């Protein structure tokens, strides 16, 4: 095994053992199971060695000190964000600040800000289109073409590789291996939606579930399971053209989609959440989209500031 | 190789990067340091990955530098919290210089490790690891289900092990 590439399965198993041992002392039988797990390979041993180092590190820190330092307030972070960002001229709350420039994205290889898209051609000729608010790392070596999706939505068209290296997208829930294809990943709140436009991909969750998806299919996976494949629609890839296509969707869903492309706070009041919407919207100008919605639906837009908009019932 | 050498990459980009960092950091010396660190980081990455090519040098350099700036501020805020803890917890001052140094190194490592975890996952994990609370106690404290606590613990463990896997080159 290439030591640069963490073996997801072994790491997940090590995490499970850590949790089991924390819940209650192992029985004799469990201890035997653990021992034979541990002795399977060098990688198993390495994973467990790291697990022990981690526990020891925490144990070595006096809890008062650890609490003050590691749980230090979000306020400092907020100041940090203000310091770092030339964009935040209006005073905003922490939530919005985090949304504008997520901390985790600053160290990513490639990222897009809210409302922006970017196309990147990789060293092997593959193409990545990144949607709004997306961050990823690129790890290419002699054996593997690997993308680590930190957050957001991407469409990938893989190119044929002269070294025949596999093309894999890794996420926090598992990985997707491309078998010569065009496909998309979208990070949802509790999983990843994969939809395939050309050929086939293989999804493997952290827990080891596998599923092949063909062109025209989509599915959502989390670390434990993969949903049944459903047909995907052309509307799913409309974002690549900067459009949002909806057919008989709830207004709350449409507002949520639009909010991904806007700085600040966009909220839909429960009073109008269930209104149904159909149409094609241009995502580069969300203010106009909102105005059009207000012209065709019984709703009103309440602008507290340009960054704080509520969609409400007519006043 | 069609790749521009690090030499020319440095010559072409050092001036704007330095000015950009001065603006972010408000300090010429720090900006000099981080300009240097940025190019060292790029050299190291290039050395490690044979297939590595830079598609958009300016954007790439800015991303690397931004990461270092964030890291700099994170360390600074850690330092502040650390000093605060020393003032507030008298027992700590009885520890030897060496122990304190090691403790600070450990905190620095853990802080970096936990940085990317979602807020709730991080709280759950720290209640378990620092305060030694049971999963049931954490569930009650945060008003979430036991199942959620376990999932959060799993996510945190996987994250930490994955992250340290690549750093541990043994």
User: Which class best fits the helix and strand makeup of chain A?
Assistant: alpha+beta
Sequence of secondary-structure elements of chain A: HHHHHHEEEEEEEEEEEEEHEEHEE
> How many domains make up the coordinates of chain B?
2
CATH architecture classification name of the largest domain in chain A: Sandwich
Rounded to an integer in angstroms, the radius of gyration calculated over CA atoms of chain A is 23 Å
Main interface pair? A-B, 61 and 61 residues
Helix-strand topology string of chain B: HHHHHHH
CATH topology of the largest domain in chain B: Rna Polymerase Sigma Factor, Chain: A
- Secondary structure category of chain B: mainly alpha
**CATH top level assignment of the largest domain in chain B:** Mainly Alpha
Shape of chain B: globular
Radius of gyration of chain B: 21 Å
Q: Percent of residues of chain B in beta strands?
A: under 5%
Largest sheet of chain B: none
In terms of quaternary structure, the protein is heterodimer
Mean pLDDT value of chain A: 81
Which features does this protein show?
A: Jelly Rolls; Phage tail protein beta-alpha-beta fold; twelve-stranded mixed beta sheet; 8 helices; globular; B: 170 residues; mainly alpha; Rna Polymerase Sigma Factor, Chain: A; 2 domains; 7 helices; 78% helix
């Amino acid at each position: 095994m290439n030591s640069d590439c963490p073996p997801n399965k072994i790491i997940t198993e090590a995490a499970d053992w850590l949790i089991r041992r924390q819940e209650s002392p192992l029985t004799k039988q469990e201890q035997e199971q653990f021992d034979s797990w541990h002795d399977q390979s060098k990688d198993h041993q390495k994973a467990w060695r790291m697990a022990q180092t981690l526990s020891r590190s925490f144990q070595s820190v006096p809890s008062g000190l650890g609490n003050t330092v590691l749980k230090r307030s979000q306020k400092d972070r907020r100041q940090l964000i203000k310091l770092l960002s030339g964009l935040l001229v209006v005073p905003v709350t922490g939530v919005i600040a985090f949304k504008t420039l997520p901390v985790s994205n600053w160290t990513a290889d490639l990222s897009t800000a809210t409302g922006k898209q970017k196309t990147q051609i990789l060293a092997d000729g593959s193409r990545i289109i990144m949607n709004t608010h997306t961050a990823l790392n690129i790890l290419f070596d002699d054996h593997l073409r690997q993308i680590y999706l930190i957050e957001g939505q991407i469409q990938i068209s893989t190119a044929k590789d002269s070294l025949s290296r596999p093309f894999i997208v890794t996420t926090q829930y598992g990985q997707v291996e491309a078998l010569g294809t065009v496909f998309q990943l979208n990070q949802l709140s509790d999983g990843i939606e994969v939809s395939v436009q050309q050929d086939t991909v293989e999804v493997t969750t952290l827990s080891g579930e596998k599923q092949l998806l063909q062109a025209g299919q989509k599915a959502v996976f989390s670390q434990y399971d993969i949903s049944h494949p459903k047909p995907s629609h052309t509307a799913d890839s409309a974002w690549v053209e900067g459009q949002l296509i909806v057919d008989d969707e709830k207004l709350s869903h449409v507002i949520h989609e639009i909010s991904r492309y806007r700085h600040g706070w966009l909220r839909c009041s429960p009073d109008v959440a269930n209104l149904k919407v159909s149409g094609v919207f241009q995502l580069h100008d969300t203010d106009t989209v909102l105005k059009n919605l207000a012209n065709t639906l019984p709703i009103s837009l309440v602008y507290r500031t340009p960054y704080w908009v509520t969609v409400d019932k007519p006043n | 190789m069609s790749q521009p050498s690090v030499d020319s990459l440095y010559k072409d980009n050092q001036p704007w990067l330095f000015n950009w960092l001065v603006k972010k950091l408000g300090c010429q010396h720090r900006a000099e340091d981080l300009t240097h660190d940025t190019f060292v980081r790029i050299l190291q990455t290039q050395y490690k990955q044979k297939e590595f090519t830079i598609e958009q040098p300016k954007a790439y350099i800015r991303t690397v530098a931004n990461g270092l700036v964030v890291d700099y501020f994170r360390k600074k805020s850690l330092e502040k919290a650390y000093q605060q803890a020393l003032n507030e917890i008298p027992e700590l001052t009885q520890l030897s210089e060496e122990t304190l140094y090691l403790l600070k190194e450990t905190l620095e490592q853990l802080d970096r490790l936990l940085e990317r975890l979602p807020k709730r996952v991080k709280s759950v994990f720290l209640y378990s690891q620092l305060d030694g609370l049971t999963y049931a106690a954490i569930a009650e404290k945060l008003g979430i289900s036991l199942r959620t606590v376990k999932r959060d613990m799993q996510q945190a463990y996987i994250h930490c092990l994955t992250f340290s896997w690549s750093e541990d080159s043994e």
